[in-house]
Amino acid sequence: MSDSIYDVIIVGTGPAGIQAAIHASRKKTKVLLLGRIENSALYPAHVENYACIEGVKDGRQLLETGMTQAKRFGAERLAEDLLKINQQENGLFAVETESGKTILCRALILAMGTAKTKLAVPGESEFAGQGVSYCVDCDANFFRGATVMVVGNHSAAIDGALTLLDYARQVYLAATELKVSEELLRRLHESKVEVLAGRRVKEIRGGDTGVQEVLLDNNEAIKTEGVFIELGSKGALQLAAQIGVQMDMELFKYIDVNRRQETNIPGVYAAGDITGPPYQMAKAVGEGCVAGMEAAVYARNKQKQQS
Fold this sequence. Notes:
There is one protein chain. The protein is of the alpha/beta class. 27% of the residues lie in helices and 25% in strands. It is built from seven helices and 17 strands. The strands form four sheets. Strands 1, 2, 5, 6, 7, 8 and 17 form a seven-stranded mixed sheet that branches. It has a five-stranded parallel sheet with strand order 9-16-10-11-12, covered by helices on one side. The longest helix has 26 residues, at 281-306. The two termini are 23 Å apart. It comes from Candidatus Electronema aureum.
């Protein structure tokens, strides 16, 4: 991976992200693709309704083929999750990955899909918004001085637990198996987060005031006022909130874009499931194509202005 400024960084290695990388790279821009293909919803799926592809195709094979294409056109790849985004005074975007790398770019494409964050345990739906949250970056401030628990095995959970140390009195992390980089794991173990290793949440309990405790699979009850469910990598809501990207006003779940896949933040684009249904590969690829071309043009113009 190069240390120089990238023209375009694409977050997400599903069909939208890969197609964006192909088209942005073909415009001779410097492109970095962030993420793991196994996190894509297409990875375990089979496809038989995509135009010009005959028969049933394996999702994993399609993604690996697409990744090979993107690399052939010049895109670089970093198989890490993205934790933070911020925009600098000079207009460049700085992204921080799970291993602690900070990388700069002129344009950013969000194509990480939609997170399936439900634990599906008793009490989860009942206390949603009353102690159960799916976004540390959005709700941490409501739990100042409280005892909270984060649930998850991946980068979003570990980063969320570390973030909550600045707000909460005590932070638990319930994880069946930690699957993160060594750097993020080191930061966790050196912190004051209390890790409940190998533990699964069995039930979320509470009353009229909201969440009061969490029952684990070993029947241990942990007193807590908040439960943050952070499964997988950082999702659309968390990352978008960091730089003020506008979500849809009805569900506050998807990123609003126009026909050019532009968000309300100049230089930030979105494509694929993250922009809303239908959740189809055909839609994701089409939006990725547009986002890749538009982001490349934006980055070139930005470079000219800065030179």
